[in-house]
Design goal:
single chain; alpha/beta; six-stranded parallel β-sheet
Length: about 500
């Protein structure tokens, strides 16, 4: 029985189920009743409804998934954080900690990403070791390191050169094909990962420490282990783990996201004192978008997408508006044929009436708008009236570059003035059934771990050759089909 001076262990009761139990959490308490609410505070302050945020001019957008989850798990997160020690010191009495991981090097995979670096930093802080990088960090990871004031881990080659016999724990991978060649398999004493055991998994002569969980991020595992050992990560470490989870789960929207990822995001946001979780997620995405060539279509369409709700006389429903800010817009515009089907799939999956993707050149202060169907073409033409090319799939928006100041206020004004969807619109790509859209999966062959869509009929040559906007309108005018007997174009 521990005495009153000993740290009391925090216990998380695990269900036999993979997911933690969902709890009903009251989120409508006045903000002044709480001292600190992490991401929930800002969202509650701007609340216009149960699931909305209000902007100037009566513009209302739906909360993003990451905001919803931080708010929903706010009470649980606060209880967990309050039970932790007030600093990151080690309690006098620990639960079992693998001594084989003390003083080892924690390193992620080649083509290293934020989960590899953030997880290595978190694991080193948790177990008492040294974080290392397997390759040069990307722009997203550098953003997180700078944001939280954390030094970039040294290259694994340099550390092993100084200490050739050092022991190594692999994080965020366990395949020899993803391992830095400077590492000898005999040096490996542990693996902390969230990927499937597939070909080229390491083989060791002796038993080693293994912690592999089917969660959305390796950093979720580290964060959870901090809590089960009644340890409070420092603010910079919590921030790095938070950014890593947001990255690997596509802001909690990815197909691998679990309830544990959502809970750990809420807890880490509280510890790191993040008052606007969506702002952090957006800033991180913008940093990531500097390396557009490595990002998949789902990542680009969903990375910085916000949903706005309308209830006007002529139009009711939700409009999704995604933005990609870049210095090289040609790199995005060259992928229009890849992005349009993903926009349609996202539109149907989220039950949106319209979806737009603006590609903004932040150097030239110029933008283009991707239009995936006749409804988008009709609304954008009324709102912006820009020159349209690529068979109606691309509209030049000129110097309009801000979603907050240029795009949404203009669309809102047009809808409030009575705009409604024109009758007898042509049938765009969104005529397909939901069951034909395939599913999102992590590409096992992609070194960046990108999420891609597989099995979608929209990727077939027949559908890719289908005109989306202007030609569909012309076809409609010629045939005058009765749209009531056709699949609804949304």
């Amino acid at each position: 029985k521990p005495n009153k001076h000993q740290a009391q262990p925090f216990i998380i009761i695990m269900n036999t189920d993979e997911q933690p139990p969902a709890k009903k959490v009251k989120i409508d308490a006045p903000a002044e009743e709480h001292l600190h609410h992490a991401g929930a505070a800002k969202a509650l302050e701007l609340a216009a409804g149960d699931h909305e945020k209000k902007y100037d001019g009566d513009i209302v957008r739906k909360r993003t998934e990451v905001e919803e989850q931080v708010i929903a798990k706010e009470a649980d997160a606060e209880l967990i954080v309050e039970s932790l020690p007030k600093d990151d010191s080690v309690p006098k009495v620990d639960l079992y900690m693998p001594q084989s991981l003390k003083d080892v090097i924690f390193v992620g995979h080649l083509v290293t990403d934020l989960d590899s670096i953030g997880g290595a930093i978190g694991a080193a802080a948790l177990y008492g070791g040294v974080p290392a990088s397997a390759s040069k960090v990307n722009s997203e990871t550098q953003f997180a390191l700078d944001y939280w004031g954390v030094e970039t881990p040294r290259p694994i080659e340099d550390i092993l050169k100084e200490n050739p016999d050092a022991k190594v724990c692999l994080v965020d991978h366990q395949q020899t094909s993803q391992m830095n060649p400077a590492i000898n398999v005999d040096q490996i004493v542990g693996v902390i990962d969230h990927h499937a055991l597939q070909s080229k998994t390491i083989v060791t002569d002796k038993p080693i420490y293994i912690d592999i969980r089917p969660w959305g991020s390796m950093s979720t595992i580290i964060a959870h282990t901090f809590l089960t050992h009644n340890r409070r990560p420092s603010k910079p470490v919590a921030g790095m783990l938070l950014c890593a989870i947001l990255s690997d789960t596509l802001n909690l929207l990815g197909p691998t996201t679990t309830e544990w990822d959502r809970l750990m995001v809420a807890v880490l946001a509280e510890i790191a004192e993040v008052d606007d979780i969506q702002l952090l997620a957006s800033q991180q995405f913008k940093a990531k978008s500097k390396e557009l060539a490595t990002m998949s279509a789902p990542a680009l369409v969903n990375g910085d997408q916000k949903t706005f709700s309308f209830d006007a006389s002529g139009f009711q429903g939700d409009i999704g508006f995604a933005v990609v800010e870049t210095t090289e817009d040609d790199a995005i515009l060259s992928r229009v044929d890849e992005l349009l089907p993903e926009m349609v799939a996202c539109k149907k999956e989220k039950n949106l009436q319209c979806i737009f993707l603006a590609v903004v050149n932040i150097v030239k202060l110029h933008s283009n708008l991707l239009l995936c169907g006749p409804t988008e073409h009709a609304l954008a033409s009324k709102a912006f009236g820009g020159n349209v090319t690529m068979d109606g799939a691309l509209m030049d928006l000129g110097g309009r570059v801000s979603r907050k100041k240029d795009y949404i206020p203009t669309i809102t004004s047009v809808i409030k003035d009575g705009w409604s969807k024109p009758e007898n619109l042509g049938r765009g790509l969104s005529m397909v059934d939901m069951s034909q859209l395939g599913k999102l999966e992590v590409d096992p062959n992609d070194p960046h771990g990108n999420v891609t869509r597989v099995g979608s009929v929209l990727d077939s040559p027949e559908m890719k050759g289908k005109k989306t906007c202007e030609s569909a309108d012309k076809e409609s005018e010629e045939k005058k089909d009765d749209v009531e007997d056709q699949p609804l174009t949304i």
